[in-house]
């Protein structure tokens, strides 16, 4: 028996070691491809070797973000059994990469030029490049260590601290834009509060409109499509505002070429147009959800478990939305310093603003997706298992609150910690649960006391009746 057990353990260790070697090999292949591409395409440019090395650091940082931070997006969905690990990984990889490619530019500019005053480097391009490389490598190594230890930490904190520390080491304390740092730090305080409040409000709304109703099936049929439609509207509106801004002019010109059509030229879509497109998609989603629920209603039971099952699809949508928002927000942590280094090397100077090359964005987007696929499951299990007891409704509220908070932050160009936002959502749901449980305890106590009072009244009435009977008997005897 002992020999069989030892043999089984040896086989498991052998498989595990081979899987680990394969993961490391794939990661090294990705970094080698980045090195070769960046070095080959920048040939003839002075210091192009530094650019190639910086690109490797950026890819390394992006993989660590995918391995460590993405667990916050899909952990609740996996923990509540709404998604399998494989499904969660696939959804997160697709939407993380899409968010980074489509909507990552605004936050990149904040990381690149907002934390430190790059003018204080003067014409010392080399010091600036070294500072950005140090920031990237330090943040990536810290994230690698945290991932190895199974600790979900803030990638935003890591890179912001790295840029600030490297800048101070290179040019002194005055290089830090303390006003910008104050705004960023305040967003780290505000964002978990926002996440907690929004998550609590979502869960409270679900409980008030569905769970506390006598006919939960009919309430689900009425309200679940509304919740999903609101989420669809927010996602599509944001996507149009951010994702179509680069190609909106071409779309308008194409439409104007159609007969009897004349659309006012705009460089990017306005909020009204984006909201209108989002509304049309939301109406379509509402109709689809209604059809789906009407098909499922005959087999539903009027209990909490059946209601929970109706939130599986919305939770998957919420996880996808959060992954998109995370890709848009946190790609800056990997490619912000890399974009700054690329700009300094290509132009030979230091500028406050510069375009983000496609290949730089690709390094961040693909790196996050690859890191998630290779090393994400470990922390997804940690986050999904260690979060306070979750069901689909609670996990949906957390994911929805976190996604909306991160989207708002990305729209404003503020790099927030998705770890803080997700934790804020968990605390919001937890506090609401405690409050509702306490309220229910008080209500149950009041109900018990009322029942005791009613029983006492019945007993008193019975005693009165007995007393009256005795009085009648006594009067007859007399």
Q: Could you explain the architecture of this structure?
A:
The chain has 478 residues and is mostly helical. It folds into 2 domains: 2-214 and 321-442, no CATH class; 216-301, no CATH class. Helix content is 81%, strand content 0%. The radius of gyration is 29 Å and the shape is elongated.
Main pleated-sheet profile: none
Instruction: Give the overall shape, derived from the CA principal axes.
Output: elongated
Provide the low-confidence segments as ranges: none
The fraction of residues assigned to DSSP E strands is under 5%
Number of helices: 16
Assembly category: single chain
Order of helices and strands: HHHHHHHHHHHHHHHH
Number of domains: 2
Radius of gyration from the alpha-carbon trace, in angstroms? 29 Å
- End-to-end Cα distance: 94 Å
**In percent, how helical is the residue content?**
over 70%
The number of E-state strands comes to 0
Structural class, by secondary structure, is mainly alpha
| Mean pLDDT over all positions | 78
Quick overview:
With 478 residues, the chain is mainly α. 81% of the residues lie in helices and 0% in strands.
What are the main properties of this structure?
478 residues; mainly alpha; 16 helices; 81% helix; 0% strand; elongated
What is the fold's blueprint, element by element?
Layout: H1 2-41, H2 48-68, H3 71-79, H4 85-103, H5 105-113, H6 125-149, H7 155-171, H8 178-211, H9 216-243, H10 248-256, H11 271-296, H12 304-309, H13 312-347, H14 358-386, H15 392-412, H16 418-477
């Amino acid at each position: 028996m002992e020999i069989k057990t030892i043999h089984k353990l040896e086989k498991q260790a052998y498989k595990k070691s081979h899987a680990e070697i394969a993961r490391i090999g794939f990661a090294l292949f990705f970094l080698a491809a980045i090195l070769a591409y960046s070095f080959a395409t920048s040939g003839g440019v002075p210091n192009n070797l530094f650019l190639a090395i910086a690109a490797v650091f950026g890819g390394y940082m992006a993989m660590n973000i995918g391995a460590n931070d993405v667990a916050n997006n899909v952990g609740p969905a996996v923990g509540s059994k709404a998604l399998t690990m494989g499904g969660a990984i696939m959804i997160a990889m697709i939407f993380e990469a899409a968010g980074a490619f489509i909507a990552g530019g605004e936050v990149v500019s904040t990381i690149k030029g907002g934390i430190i005053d790059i003018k204080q480097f003067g014409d010392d391009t080399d010091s600036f490049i070294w500072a950005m490389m140090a920031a990237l490598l330090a943040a990536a190594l810290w994230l690698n260590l945290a991932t190895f230890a199974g600790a979900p930490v803030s990638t935003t904190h890591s890179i912001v601290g790295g840029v600030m520390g490297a800048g101070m080491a290179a040019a002194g304390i005055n290089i830090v834009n303390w006003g910008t740092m104050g705004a960023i730090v305040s967003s780290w305080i505000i964002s978990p509060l926002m996440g907690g409040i929004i998550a609590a409000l979502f869960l409270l709304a679900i409980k008030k409109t569905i769970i506390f109703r006598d006919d939960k099936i009919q309430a689900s049929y009425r309200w679940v499509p509304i919740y999903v439609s609101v989420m669809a509207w927010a996602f599509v509106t944001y996507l149009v505002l951010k994702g179509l801004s680069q190609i909106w002019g071409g779309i308008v010109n194409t439409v104007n070429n159609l007969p009897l059509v004349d659309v006012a030229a705009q460089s990017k879509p306005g909020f009204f147009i984006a909201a209108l497109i989002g509304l049309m998609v939301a109406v379509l989603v509402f109709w689809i959800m209604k059809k789906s629920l009407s098909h499922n209603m005959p087999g539903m039971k009027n209990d909490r478990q059946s209601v929970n099952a109706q939130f599986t699809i919305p939770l998957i949508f919420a996880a996808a939305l959060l992954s998109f928002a995370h890709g848009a927000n946190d790609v800056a942590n990997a490619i912000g310093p890399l974009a700054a280094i690329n700009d300094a090397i290509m132009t030979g100077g230091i500028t406050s603003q510069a375009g983000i090359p496609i290949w730089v964005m690709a390094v961040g987007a693909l790196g996050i997706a690859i890191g998630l696929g290779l090393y994400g499951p470990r922390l997804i299990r940690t986050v999904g298992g260690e979060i306070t007891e979750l069901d689909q409704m609670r996990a949906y509220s957390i994911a929805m609150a976190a996604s909306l908070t991160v989207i708002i932050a990305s729209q404003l160009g503020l790099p927030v910690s998705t770890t803080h936002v997700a934790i804020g959502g968990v605390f919001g749901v937890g506090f609401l649960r405690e409050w509702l449980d306490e309220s229910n305890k008080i209500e149950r106590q009041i109900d018990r006391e009322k029942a005791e009072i009613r029983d006492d009244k019945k007993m008193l009435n019975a005693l009165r009746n007995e007393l009256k009977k005795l009085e009648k008997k006594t009067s007859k005897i007399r």
